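Bug #77: duplicate submission created two jobs. Keeping one. Sequence:
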Amino acid sequence: MKLWKGRFQKEADPRTNDFNSSIAFDSRMYRQDIEGSIAHATMLGRQGIIGENESMKICVELGKIRDDLDAGVLAIDPDAEDIHTFVEQELTARLGDAGKRLHTGRSRNDQVALDIRLTLREDCAGLKAQLKELISVLCKEAKLYSDAVMPGYTHMQRAQPVTFGHHLMAYAEMLLRDVSRLDDAIRRMNYSPLGSGALAGTTYPLDREMTAKLLGFTAPAQNSLDAVADRDFCAEIVFAVSLCMAHLSRLCEELVLWCSWEFRFIELDDAYCTGSSIMPQKKNPDLAELIRGKSGRVFGDLIGLLTMMKGLPLAYNKDMQEDKEAVFDAVDTLKLCLTPLIPMLDTMKVRKDHMRAAAAGGFINATDCADYLVSVKGLPFRDAYKITGELVALCIEQKLTLETLPLQQYQAVCPDFDEGVYEAISLDKCVSDRKVLGGPAPENVRAQAKRVLELVEEMDKRTGDC
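Kept job's structure:
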């Protein structure tokens, strides 16, 4: 039976029911719906709006419904309009008139606004835990390969020497920001809409501070119109998830490149690759490619949400039912992607020898050659830059590298060169001398990994304190 049936003279067309129903995607909120209803019923009894005895009966029976759903003893009716209707009707079937009193002073508008906040608060906590696990794996690998020299790239051209550990820590920093964005979104979301009614509150003497406290909110939302019409938090969470997916996509793009025969910087474990139906030699990084591809799906969720909300007048409009499919899909997709990515990175084999060989070509120590002329010989940087460019051109012509170019040819271009240039341009020295904060020197990388792991530990402590 529809909660709004009294106004209507005829039954809704079955096609209307099918189109209008949200039970297929909001049924995941049954625990949160029951949690919110228990808080509401407790407050109604405390305020004398319904009898204390009825309040207690409602709360006890709601707990039993939750337990029955958890255990699979009770199945959610797929023909119910939504999860809110299903729970209320099941309660009424068990308690009779007492169950009908639950909705006193409440609308489905503030109810659904509450349920989705509670659900996303829990979902985001799970995502944060996964992201922190991924950050920890990156830090572990970074410490292990803090001195593994590899070429750093700009424009996909070899640019300057870095280390594999330094490269991985760049992604750890991105993911730290992703965790922080989720924290910020949760903080702004954590205000209770319960008691705002359909849009204008209610004449009942509700204690909104009480229900907010019972449900772990910072405080009640301060404007009843905004409380039921607000979906900023959905868009904000999907944006945070979208940016995180962009970071994962960039990482996976590099994993795909690195495990190719053209690079061979890493080898992914067989457990996280697939083969070809026709080419027996193939070992394909399909998981990394799928994560890269799924980023577009999440970006679409964000655009869908923003487009849905952009022209809506206050307060609630049925368009807003579309919020849940978008935000739940984004959250679920990120969770799905993180689940195999963490062990895939944890088990990959790193080919330091191939990284080193790649770093030896491409003249990635050219900047260090110019810096040698500046810091040791006192030349202006622009002069040193021009001289080094001429040396690179000479090496390319003679099929040599800066390391193998004879000293007399260095001196033919610039007489200030001496034997010290060879030490200055050695790859290990090029990396180890970059000790500036944020640079790739091995001790820097290890210190950065230690700092990030400490930050993650602090996050876990704050979460535990909450």
